[in-house]
Amino acid sequence: MTQASISTTADAARSAPPEAKSGFRLPTHWLGVAPFFIFALMFLILPTLYLVVGAFQNDQGQYTLDNIRQLFADQSIRDSYWVSIKISFWSATIGALVGLAMAIAIVRGGLPAWVRSSTMTFSGVASNFAGVPLAFAFLATLGRLGLVTVILRDVFGINIYAMGFNVLTSWGLIIVYLFFQIPLMIVIITPAIDGLKREWGEAAATLGATTWQYWRMVVIPVLWPSFLGTVILLFANSFGAIATAYAFTGSSLNIVPIKLYAQIRGDVLHNPHLGYALAFGMIVVTGLANIFYIWFRTRSERWLK
Question: Which InterPro entries would you find in this protein's record (predicted)?
Answer without folding.
Answer: MetI-like, MetI-like_sf
